[in-house]
Amino acid sequence: MAADTRSKLPPPKLPPLRDVIAAHGLQASKALGQNFLLDEQLLDRIAAIPGPLEDQPAFEVGPGPGGLTRAILRAGARLVAVERDRRCLPALSELSEAFPGQFRVISGDAMAVDARAEAGEGAHIIANLPYNVGTALLIGWLSTDWSPLPWWSSLTLMFQMEVAERIVAKPNGDHYGRLAVLSQWRSDARIAMKVHRSAFTPPPKVMSAVVHITPKPAPEGVQLKHLERLTAAAFGQRRKMLRQSLKGLPGALEALEAVGIDPQRRAETVSVEEFVETARVLGRL
Known about the structure:
It catalyses: adenosine(1518)/adenosine(1519) in 16S rRNA + 4 S-adenosyl-L-methionine = N(6)-dimethyladenosine(1518)/N(6)-dimethyladenosine(1519) in 16S rRNA + 4 S-adenosyl-L-homocysteine + 4 H(+). Its EC number is 2.1.1.182. One of its GO terms (molecular function) is methyltransferase activity. This is Ribosomal RNA small subunit methyltransferase A. It contains 13 helices and nine strands. Helix 7 (134-142) links the parallel strand 5 and strand 6. The protein is 37% helix and 18% strand. The protein has helices at residues 2-8, 17-23, 40-48, 67-74, 89-98, 115-119, 134-142, 161-168, 178-184, 224-236, 242-245, 252-259, 272-282, and strands at residues 36-37, 57-61, 78-83, 103-107, 123-128, 152-160, 187-195, 200-201, 208-215. The longest helix has 13 residues, at 224-236. The chain has a seven-stranded mixed beta sheet, sandwiched between helices. The chain is an alpha/beta fold and 285 residues long.
């Protein structure tokens, strides 16, 4: 009943983000990879990417002064956020008071926090990720148990444009590599929005993009460890033919032959589906 009542109330009126930053003396930390987004319309658009969030569990990394946090809370999510920068905690505490029972902040390092235990099953992970740990966090979420789906419902994540392009890349392109295969073999990944560097405070040197990833059941008979070994070897020497780059991985050349992949091809020409099938055969050898 409380959730129903809350959903019918208008969102609380909050001070402008610039005022919050000024009041708490929050300057973005280069050491923590921080770049703040202040455009509330843009933040609302990002929070809308996962779809309806009313009474849905959500998880945010590095909320900073709480710009995206506000948008997620306005959308009605039950949000848990992890913030390493203790300077930001008083501003986030004000949001906890403005959205009672809806928002909880954990002071700590997202790399060390058990997101599944804190946010709960089915959580939507939404974050303007700190650039220095974004890829590592993504790989952790993509490598979690899949039975038949992961614990999270979707990933809506801000990355540098170059990283975003690597996540959604297709074969025969310079951006295609291990990250694309890991992101796409049991998920759908797309660039949902491009964000100009001028939208951030301070502006980063590069453009950014929001990537949206939704999981799907993993192909049967394929283990992540075999796919990881295969792609590590193949892309570790991406300019070489597969017969050369894979010769050090036991069974890999036999698996290629069984699948019907020409060993004279290079890794960047091999589709996600072909890597999956080769990993499936490799796991049987």
